[in-house]
Amino acid sequence: MTNTSKHLFIAKLAKTIGKPVSILDTETTGIGAPKTIGIVQFAILTVHPDGKEVPYETLINPEMKIPAEASRVHHIYDNHVANKDPFRAIANSIRKAYQTRIISGFNIETYDTPVIRANMESALGAGSFPECSQLDVRRIYTKGKNGVRGKLSEVAEMFGIEVKNAHNALGDVMMTAGILDAMIEQYGTKYVLNYLTLTPGSTAGNTQNNPKEQQQASVKTAQPVVKKQAKQNTESAILEFLASTDKQLLRSSYQELSDKLGVSQTTLSFAISALIQKGAVDLNRIGDREELQRILCVLPSIYAEEQKLAGLGVQVKLTPLLERVRKTGIDSDFVQLRIALQLMDMGKTLVMDNQQNQVLSRS
Question: Please, is 68 exposed, middle or buried when counting C-beta atoms within 10 Å of its C-beta (0-12, 13-18, 19+)?
Fold first, then answer.
């Protein structure tokens, strides 16, 4: 079945890289060395550059008993798969997907791909798993989270994605696609593509059986397909803009820079925030100062309430913060909000000096 894209930002990413993005998930017989794990359900959603989406799911006979503890999680039992085809019936199709598309999923680098690799080599022979490009949504999320891994349903809730049909392969695929789409919208295509890695294919007589070893090998040999220059480029462009003009950074400037760099305003906001933190941007160059001061007046209490709702140690999301700021009558955006958050974090207050028409900062 082919549908018009519900994931417009994934389609945009696919168009940028010139190939489809396939989000996949497996349900299996459990944990352990990949060669000992059977696949009982496989699902994949392919988003094409033109926005078309093609979902696919199937039950698989793992040709081994499904442990009771695994069935309690995904509710797939031996009788459900007894008359289904084994993995080798779809192994070539999955191999082609890995060869020709960007493969994405939640925790695929650590779990799903090593299990698929082992099953593919069992079905098609050693050396059959191809070199592939992967985009692990969980790795994007955990970056900068101080080791907090996050479960799929928890991360979905953080991004406002409905938790539905958890531990069903297609259900997990749709949640993961929703998270990835939201990440691209919030952080920008270039930021997300920083996490695209090239994973080497297997060679005859050389297979990875331990998931930890597989992950370590992947990290050692993975090469970023897109250089990690988005943040530096954005910061440099902002500094070049300030050096080329006496004008202030206004909201119209943010849109101009965002379009020029091809990044979202969220990405731009983080770059400006970083420059302020480094002391590289004079606060007097930041425009719309009266509005910024109004945000700073209401932000501490709003932030404290959102932090309480999110839970201790959980990062507060920008979208609900912005929505609540706007409800106070302030027509703000992500960039202004991020600047205000940075100033609040630094303990700064902006004070208007009417005589000099400057913004003074004080702790």
Answer: exposed
The pLDDT tens digits of the residues spanning 254-290 come to 777 777 777 777 777 778 888 887 778 777 777 777 8
pLDDT in tens, 112-129: 999 999 999 999 998 899
Dist CA 363 CA 347 (whole Å): 5
Task: Inform me whether the pLDDT recorded for 6 exceeds 50.
Answer: yes
Check residues 293 and 74 and name the one with the higher pLDDT. 74
- For the chain, which domains are there? 3-221 (3.30.420.10), 230-362 (no CATH)
| pLDDT of residue 53 exceeding 50 | yes
Helix (H) or strand (E) holding 22: strand 21-28
CA distances from 108 to 10, 61, 117, 125, 322 (A): 17, 21, 11, 22, 33
As to burial, measured by CB atoms within 10 angstroms (0-12 exposed, 13-18 middle, 19+ buried), residue 16 is: middle
Q: Let me know: does 116 contact 211? Beta carbons within 8 Å.
A: no
Task: Say what the alpha-carbon torsion angle 266, 183, 319, 237 is, to the nearest 10 degrees.
Answer: 0
Looking at residue 316, the DSSP 8-state letter turns out to be P
Average pLDDT, the chain: 82
φ, ψ of residue 339 in degrees (nearest 5): -60, -45
